[in-house]
Amino acid sequence: MAFDFKKEYKEFYMPKDKPAIVDVPEMNYIAVRGQGDPNTEDGEYKKAIGLLYGIAFTIKMSKKGDHRIEGYFDYVVPPLEGFWWQEGVEGIDYAHKEDFRWISVIRLPDFVTGADFDWAIGEATRKKKEDFSKVEFLTVEEGLCVQCMHIGSYDNEPATVEMMHKYMEEQGYALDITDERLHHEIYLSDARKVAQEKLKTVIRHPIRKI
Fold first, then answer.
1. Which of 13, 16, 178, 192 falls between 20 and 30 A from 199, CA-CA?
2. Which residue blocks in 61-205 are alpha helix, DSSP H?
3. This prediction's pTM
4. Nearest CA to 107 among 81, 126, 83, 127?
């Protein structure tokens, strides 16, 4: 049975649809940075997702090739995630998606080292004949956060965010979004296959104790 991060770490990937406080440890990611509206057809965001999955599956399928990763175990590729912000905007302005800056990521198993990652970039470049130079190995320690499962359209996220912030304040915390601590989303549904009203997205915001 392949290891599934969503099932093994439910506190990070499968929260309830009510806000909760969580302490998120350091994690390593495959990452691509970019900007612009994520809904643009053939845009930068959709190309970034292709690059991420290209590396994610190169690492996952390394078991079938000559490159042996120490400590490797079979696993389900974790869900797509994203860190989002807009220059000069506090929070997120959903009316101006063209102004989005983002870091699109997929979590890496802890057994993947920097050397393994570099091998995967080279291997994917050679096999797929694509440029993977935008892809980076990123380590993030989010720390104390408030999070909630949002069900429905991405455009309806503000209502869930408002509920999260109210809960956070009631518990004695303040929002702590900075240049390093960002609005974070984890996509548990494939928006191409799931009706908008059924989409499941984890929303996570950094906080600090007052």
1. 178
2. 114-128, 157-170
3. 0.96
4. 81
Among 167, 187, 191, residue whose Cα is nearest residue 78: 187
- Residues β-bridged to residue 107: 29
Structure token digits, residue 190: 């494939």
Q: Are 161 and 205 in contact (CB under 8 A)?
A: yes
What DSSP state is assigned to residue 106? E
* CA 95 to mean position of chain CA atoms: 22
Phi-psi sector, 54: left (phi>0), alpha (psi -120 to 50), beta: alpha
CB 149 within 8 A of CB 200: yes
pLDDT digits (tens, 9 = 90+) for 2-60: 999 999 999 999 999 999 999 999 999 999 999 999 999 889 999 999 999 999 999 99
Residue 62 to residue 52: CA distance in whole angstroms: 16
